[in-house]
Amino acid sequence: MTGPDLAIGFIGAGAANFGGGEGPWDHASRLEKIPGLRAVGIADPDLARAKSRLDERRGTLWTGARAFADFRPMLDEAKPEAVWIAVPPHAHGTTEPGKDIEVECARRGVHMLIEKPLGGARPELVRPVADAVAKSGVIASVGYMFRYSRAIGKMKEILDATPGGGRVFVGQYDCAYSRIVKPEWWDIRPMGGPIVEQATHFVDLARFLLGDANPASVRAVAIPGGSAAGALSDIPQQPDGRRMDAGVPDAFRHPRATAAVWTFLNGAVGSLTHATLLHREKYDTRLEVWGDGLRVELDDPYGVPSLRVRRPHTEATETVPIGDDDPYLTEDLAFVEAVRTRNPAGIRSPYADAFRTFELTWAITDAASTDRD
User: Fold this and answer.
1) N or C terminus: which one in the chain shows less Cβ crowding within 10 Å?
2) Where in the chain does DSSP place strands (E)?
3) Residue 315 lies in domain
4) Can you tell me the distance from the alpha carbon of 274 to that of 259, in angstroms, rounded to the nearest whole number?
């Protein structure tokens, strides 16, 4: 590596950027493995947390980095060339002052890797951000890390080699809720709901593997959080002893399950079943794609993925080896390389494409809400 180090910054000092929470999925530990980077700042409204993140880190990447309580002074004073944006959905993704992180970065020519979802607001409020990002010409990658997964890559290779490709997408996602201790997660108003905030990864994979969907075709049903069927026995408590969803009106409680179907523009069909029903910590997730003579199943993509395939003209099912894989590191490497070369060709989830996933998650959410009404 030759030339000056790439100056990078972090907007958000929480788990997605620095670890903790639901898993070891942070960007900072991956970026420490990439040579030629120089961290210049961490911005978070909780300044003490931003400072503690710097205190926890070691190595030359962090030499000279500063903590900021606001992202704008960090952009103007520390002058990062690229930033990793990982803040709650309701704190970004619009043109509203304070929540206009992407617009302010784009205006300054700062490249972005933005954690999903694109925001907690509805698509019509996020669209001006997409327009601003496109007009600016900055590189903007969205954190759909499964697009960089070796297992998903193999699935895509198999589908591309099968005449007609995928005809059916089946996604199943059962979330373990006992340790989810963020009160806002249990309220659909700041987060957009579980399809927008969590199942968005599977909605995105449906599009990545089978192509664009027709949002107008979506049909969905849900178990509302305030219904008798939505009663849960293991919701964690707040420090004062109340349940995490205490005080949330029934109409805005986190749906316990959503089942949706839709069509793709190429005539294929898709389905997604998402639930918040398992106890303790381990989720249960899997997806399948069916084609002419083909069935491909990926089990546990968040944990230890297992990929099985039944190919055309056979009744046998084989296990496809995957090997060690870190899609988070691959995603960060692709973004860094794109910024260094000013060539976005390696970005598998650019902002404009991620916006179409965002629209589809809201179409599912709206269809399920209409059914409740």
Assistant:
1) C
2) 6-11, 37-43, 66-68, 82-85, 111-114, 140-142, 166-176, 219-223, 257-263, 269-278, 284-291, 294-299, 306-310, 318-320
3) 146-325+356-372
4) 7
Say whether both 318 and 242 belong to one domain.
yes
222 pLDDT exceeds 60?
A: yes
3-state secondary structure of 308: strand
- Provide the pLDDT for residue 66: 96
Asked if the structure places residue 38 within a domain, the reply is yes
Q: Which of 255, 228, 265, 254 is nearest to 356 (CA)?
A: 265
Q: Is 162 helix (H, G, I), strand (E, B) or coil?
A: coil
Are residues 104 and 152 located together in one domain of the fold?
no
| Residues 179, 235: Cα–Cα separation, whole Å | 8
Whether the full predicted model's pTM is greater than 0.90, yes or no, is: yes
How far apart, in Å, do the first and last CA atoms of the chain sit? Answer: 58
Q: Are residues 171 and 64 in the same domain?
A: no
Q: Residue 155 sits in a domain of what CATH number?
A: 3.30.360.10
Alpha-carbon gap, residue 308 to 349, rounded angstroms? 25
For 206, phi and psi rounded to 5 degrees?
Answer: -60, -45
> In this structure, are 122 and 190 located in the same domain?
no
**Strand ranges for 4-126 from DSSP E:** 6-11, 37-43, 66-68, 82-85, 111-114
